[in-house]
């Protein structure tokens, strides 16, 4: 949370992506969906299965902890509407594998040179200065 953004103005980085109250970041998690027809698990609150097209899909909670499946380090300021830290700081982007069987693309917090494949990371919601709530996976303690 920031001191300058009224709580009512927080919004998720993508609709249907998060569960919990955006004005209570500790309560925020990732929404997931599972298909009864084929078992596919997907990120976000979905009404159709992208694997088989079934509409027999139900919401599930996704775990807060996962493991870095792979990652890269962004060492130069991305072009366009970059909304990260100013001044720019290198950061890691990981594919985080969750126990539910899907992988999530997200920044990995902490020292980007300390990130390793297989390390355990934990979902952390954060509010940007523009009121958008996004998330990072931080190394688990
Ligand atoms: Zn399906």
TrEMBL record:
SUPFAM superfamilies named in the record: Nucleic acid-binding proteins (SSF50249)
Highest taxon, organism lineage: Bacteria
Domain ChsH2 rubredoxin-like zinc ribbon: start-end pairs: 30-57
The ChsH2 C-terminal OB-fold domain, residue ranges: 61-124
Coiled coil: none
Protein name: Putative nucleic-acid-binding protein
